[in-house]
Amino acid sequence: MSHKIIFDCDNTLGIPLKEVDDGLTLFYLLGIPEIELIGVTTTFGNGSIDQVFQQTQKLVGGLGLEIPVLKGEGQPGQSPDTPAARFLVEAANRHSGEVTLLGTGPLGNLHAASQLDPDFFHKLNGVCVMGGYLEPVKLGYRNLQDLNLSANPIAAKTVLNAPCPVTVFSGQACLDATFGLKDILKIDYWPEKLKWTLIQWLIAFGLYTGRFVFFLWDLLPAVFLTMPQLFNIKDFRIGSSIKDLQSGMLIQSNSIEDPVIKLAAGIKDQQAFYDHLNKAWRDAAKRFLL
To answer: Which of 32, 46, 57, 102 fits a disulfide with 10 by CB distance 3.0 to 4.6 angstroms?
Structure first.
């Protein structure tokens, strides 16, 4: 049985010294036969909306994929009537109850879709997102800031309170998935150009934090879509206010009036996670001649 997925992202893979994990997530999705990727919607985040949209078009086109790539939110508060939001509404109507949304950037496109169609979230199979922190995260000599939920806290509040199943991978959960130089060099199925792009990002992130690894942030919710058994997941009653979400903080509530989401607490078996990831990447490389 296939899983219909829409990937809502702020991909900048290929732009020098920009984040790479959204692009690596796309490669993963393409390597899983049971995932039917029906569209990619783009948002500002790791870059401007123009950078993200153009780079994602280039990446998808370069792989020879016939998958729609839609331009979405460029800044909070803009009109919800974007190509991305319209596509999300149309897809939810066409495949009611079947579509899962994977969100790896700011969540404005999902919020916009719910403004265009108040029943939008009722028509989804679920939402799985990466973003937010349970407490400040210190890496090396830097305190890392959340750049997803906090980029559009009103949208984040809407998604966290959505009436469909919602799963969240916080910054803490993603610290289980590091990626370093030895990991890049041992992957023999990637072209040298891609490896060099990853090495450049590794150096940039290492200079920023003092730790010469980067994190596969967005890969975790993607892997969860087909391998949930690899993760520790718990119920979490979410009470974050708009003010809390301005810094991306996920606050646990004791009020039964607040919604319950699924919150990832980490990877159960790291070796199984990396083995699964490498198999999917290798299969994608074979299928699409990366």
So the answer is: 46
Number of H-type helices and E-type strands within the chain: 11, 12
Q: What angle, 0 to 180 degrees and rounded to 10, lies between the N-to-C axes of helices 83-94 and 108-116?
A: 60
Write out the residue range of the structural domain in which residue 42 sits.
3-288
Contact 22/13 with Cβ under 8 angstroms?
yes
pLDDT of residue 290: 61
Calculate the CA 142 to chain-centre distance: 22
**Domains in the chain: how many in total?**
1
Which strands, in side-by-side order, build the sheet including 99-103?
Answer: 69-71, 35-42, 3-9, 99-103, 126-130, 166-169, 260-267, 231-237
Portion of the chain with pLDDT greater than 90, in percent: 93
The enclosing domain of 170 has a CATH number of 3.90.245.10
Q: How far apart are CA 277 and CA 32, in angstroms?
A: 10
Find, among 76, 128, 68, the residue nearest to 102 by Cα.
128
- 6 with 99: CB under 8 angstroms? yes
Q: Read off the pLDDT of residues 254-279 as tens digits, 9 standing for 90 and up.
A: 999 999 999 999 999 999 999 999 99
Q: How many residues would you count in the chain?
A: 290
How confident is the model over 66-109, as pLDDT tens digits?
999 999 999 999 999 999 999 999 999 999 999 999 999 999 99
**Which amino acid, 58?**
K
**Nearest-angstrom CA–CA distance, 170 and 263:** 8
State the pTM of this model. Answer: 0.97
**What angle (nearest 5°) sits at the alpha carbon of residue 272, between those of residues 269 and 277?**
125
Rounded to whole angstroms, the Cα distance separating 104 from 93 reads: 22
